[in-house]
Amino acid sequence: MGNCCSDVGGGMAAVSGATSSAATGNQNDAVDMYLRSHGIHGLFSQIELSFSATSLRDRDVFSKSDPMVVVYIKERDGAINEVFRTEVVLNSLTPTWIAKYTITYHFEVVQNLLFKVFDVDTQYHNVEVKMLKLEEQQSLGEAYCTLSELVTKPNRSLTLDLIRREESVSSTHSQHCGKLTVHAEECFSSKSTADIILRCIDLESKDLFSKSDPFLVISKLVESGTSIPVCKTEVLKNDHNPTWKPVFLNIQQVGSKDSPLVIECFNFNSNGKHDLIGKVQKSLADLEKLHLGREGENLYLPTLVGHNYENKAIYEVGEVLQFYDADKRYPAWGFGARPIDGPVSHCFNLNGSSNYCEVQGIQGIMMAYTSALFNVSLAGPTLFGHVINRASVVACDSLSTGAKKYFALLIITDGVITDLQETKDALVKASDLPLSILIVGVGGADFKEMEILDAVKGERLESTTGCIASRDIVQFVPFRDLQSGEISMVGALLAELPTQFLTYMRRRDIKPST
Question: For residue 127, is it left (φ>0), alpha (ψ between -120 and 50) or beta?
Fold first, then answer.
């Protein structure tokens, strides 16, 4: 795998996310208290904006688009001024940009932000971004928001629909142009910097006829569990023992010396599909200890449950169900894992937060899952009851407010259930709620007991108190039964969902709104 001593798509040069700014202004106690309750520590806070996008339009013929974000501020007089440009990410329809934009947040001022995404033509790839003529680039769409609506979001992230400029005049309901996610973090000024030289030895070869072309991406983990890239090294061609140029990190960029950093080593590919060679999570303090002890740290590839089968399940099911969810925010929990120096937990927030469990979009689920792998170790036993009860609380709370919502809980497991009766009890209670449960079994475990939960023989589940489930709410699918390709996993998983939904609505005499 390799040893690290001491993509993000894009070109082969290094990219830094460093920005500089200063905060000024007097405080107002009442307003300052409100801002602090929303995670913002001052009337004139310096806010750092990070950018990522999904489902961008492909404007290139023989490759993917090469996107860049340009930020504008709309002044009170209506004038629109350009203030910032990211780097260009090569061959990517789902880019995450490293360059950050820092803006001073004024509570009393409505600060209108306009974001435009451009596809930079191949002939301009060696031109500095500040020298690019935007009229010579193709528009991939634009989005608008105010800074105040961004910083007051609970997770300080906002996902915006990209629309084409000519479409924005007549209709915003035209073809989809993708989505732009903007994440805000408060900057704390610091003059402390870290000068780091990183090198690897014995990297795994990812190319067939040559050595790997490695580069590093260093990211910080924010409160929501999202990883935000802060810098990227240059690409070193044909090198299994690379030593990169020094990386300069301001403490302001990473939060503190003890803040967790994810260092990922990729093999560069010109098509933008860079191969992950391995990764490691360390703080600046940890790296300093390694340096003083003249030690290294092994890179590793995350071993995802079921050899990535769960990625396929989440994406395929999510792609179908997301169109029935208005805000695209999903509660995400993990179970059967042991946090560092803690007991095994059978229901914890996947994003690492102790206050909220929601993530934004399908990509947010996957990012939270990947992040969680750094902080927990998988452990038995496999208990479903806790997670089902947690989902039942969400459905019950919604029902008590009179909301006409229906929920689907997706469980992915590689273990045999060990709390069968407790799970039955939870399912019997949940059968009266607007909830369906989809279970995917991955790996080679014996999942025969799962068929009992699915009531495949028509027998209703019975609780320990003798209560009978009012309806079947479970659909179980073993992934290995679908590997022939004759039946799609998403089709098998969702086969009973429409009937379960209609059964619930008819019993409650809930009719569609007209």
Answer: beta
